[in-house]
Write a structure and sequence with these properties.
heterodimer; A: about 140 residues; two-stranded antiparallel ribbon; 2 strands; about 50% helix; about 5% strand; elongated; disordered C terminus; B: about 200 residues; 9 helices; disordered N terminus
């Protein structure tokens, strides 16, 4: 560790040693403790770190709804061939659109019960309303990317 | 959260769920979404500055897991690194399509510094200036700052997510931080003034 490398670390990672490269962290800390001339650069880096920390978004309560929505769509997009025949009564698997007639898929969904009972691995379960429009088909089509 | 640099770790906390997802387990997919999507959503929101697009990107990241989980081979980078890579690339694609112009000229004015100014309003306006300064960064510098400053990944994980060397990552970060210092000079001066008493 030398002055040039210490300044490079500050310039790239800031003043928080937790963000410094692990292999160099101890040496950089030792260097800083011995070189008072490094303090102004560390102080500048700390100030920028503080600004960035103040900006970091705090998860909003609406995020829980968004995550739940994404979770439902992702779960519903499971490849059908590996989910059929789970043996659990009342489970309705998402209907994959790839290789299948989309109109038939939409018709099947429309004719199915509007309440959908989905079991989770931890034993919890819930009731979700299936949107029998194109939502599931579009979601699965997106998974093909 | 680990800063120990062992991103090529053999102890990947997601590997069990990834294996189950590869076998078609929807509950494992739901568990992965619950565990990893908050940070991916936050990454996307900060990079795109658009809540609807951020949700779209996050959803696309986890939908792609279905097509990749079965082929995932443990022992290399962590699965979370792959999630970051996909999210960053999707965001960069959208930013390139959008072709945003730098917003450096549009930084909001400093708020009234009268003693009775609301502290929270000051903090909100400062955060808004930081956001604009980050939005003004070139896309890959923005991605590097997002990964290292907000996602709390190691430098090796961030480099892997961006598909660059660690040296290249440090170059991106240094340039980004230099630009941010230039654009936020007055806010930094305030902070340093407070620190120095």
């Amino acid at each position: 560790m030398n002055e040039a490398r210490f300044q490079e670390i500050l310039a790239a990672y800031g003043a928080d040693p937790r963000r410094w490269p692990k292999a160099e962290r101890a040496a950089a800390l030792a260097y800083y403790s011995q070189d008072a001339a490094a303090q102004p650069a560390v102080r500048d880096a700390e100030a920028l770190d503080a600004l960035l920390a103040g900006y970091a978004a705090v998860p909003a309560s609406s995020d829980l709804e968004i995550i739940a929505r994404i979770s439902r769509k992702v779960s519903a997009a499971a490849p059908q061939s590996t989910r059929l025949g789970s043996g659990r009564p009342g489970r309705l698997q998402a209907f994959a659109a790839q290789g299948r007639n989309a109109a038939a898929a939409a018709g099947f969904l429309a004719a199915a019960l509007t309440g959908l009972f989905i079991g989770f691995g931890n034993g919890a379960s819930g009731v979700f309303t299936v949107d029998a429009s194109d939502e599931l088909i579009v979601s699965y089509a997106m998974a093909e990317g | 959260m680990s800063y120990d640099g062992r991103d090529l770790t053999h102890s990947d906390p997601d590997i069990d769920d990834v294996r189950r997802i590869g076998a078609g387990d929807a509950s494992a997919a739901a568990a992965l979404v619950r565990r990893r999507s908050p940070k991916i959503l936050a990454l996307s929101r900060r990079m795109l500055n658009d809540a609807a697009e951020a949700e779209d990107v996050t959803q696309e990241v986890f939908l792609r897991v279905w097509t990749h989980a079965a082929n995932w081979r443990p022992g290399g980078a962590k699965f979370e690194t792959w999630l970051h890579r996909v999210a960053v690339n999707l965001c960069l694609d959208r930013l390139r399509r959008r072709r945003e112009t730098p917003a450096g000229d549009a930084l909001p004015d400093r708020p009234d510094e009268s003693p009775d100014a609301e502290q929270s309003m000051w903090a909100d306006q400062r955060a808004a200036r930081v956001r604009l300064a980050i939005d003004a960064l070139p896309e890959r510098q923005r991605a590097a700052i997002e990964l290292c400053s907000f996602q709390e990944v190691t430098n090796i994980e961030a480099a892997a997510a961006l598909e660059v060397s660690v040296d290249a990552l440090e170059s991106l970060l240094a340039r980004a931080r230099r630009s941010l210092r230039d654009n936020l000079a007055r806010d930094l001066s305030d902070l340093l003034g407070v620190v120095d008493g």
